[in-house]
Design brief:
alpha+beta, extended, 2 domains, five-stranded antiparallel beta sheet
Length: 147
């Protein structure tokens, strides 16, 4: 068994997961799923460089994020309302009246770390476009202005 699998099992156990849990449920499924992914990754025989590259690409794709800039081509859009289109490669990008915008272009963050979005979060998009989010720190007393 690889060092990576042993490491994963040790860390899961320390975090409170019962690796021998026989009862069906979310904890058992999580342990099984995580160990399955670790086993596949371990068998791939990555070097230091390729391991980081593979993890990074997997993380992007597993989060339903694009790995190349959005093009804005017709094939990237699904109509979700009358005249409202959502990008099928990046679900936070919409288009109305021919104008595209990122609904999460700005995320407002309060001093306690809580975050929110609103209409002022919408940022115009020009293609090609790589989705990004800007975090805007808002002093607590000023947060009413962003609502």
């Amino acid at each position: 068994m690889s060092n990576l699998i042993e490491h994963a099992k040790r860390e899961l156990k320390i975090a409170g997961y019962d690796l021998e849990d026989r009862e069906e449920g979310p904890n058992k499924w999580m342990v099984e799923n995580i160990l399955e992914l670790i086993t596949v990754f371990s068998k791939q025989g990555h070097s230091g460089f390729s391991a980081g590259y593979c993890r990074s690409m997997f993380n992007i794709l597993a989060n339903f994020e694009p790995i190349a800039p959005l093009t804005g081509e017709d094939s990237e859009w699904n109509e979700v309302g009358e005249g409202v289109f959502q990008n099928n490669r990046s679900s936070n990008v919409f288009k109305e009246n021919g104008k595209a915008y990122n609904i999460d272009g700005k995320v407002f963050r309060e001093p306690d770390g809580s975050c929110y979005t609103n209409k002022k979060s919408h940022v115009p998009v020009v293609f090609p476009y790589t989705p990004k989010t800007e975090y805007v720190d808002i002093p607590y007393e000023d947060n009413q202005e962003t609502l």
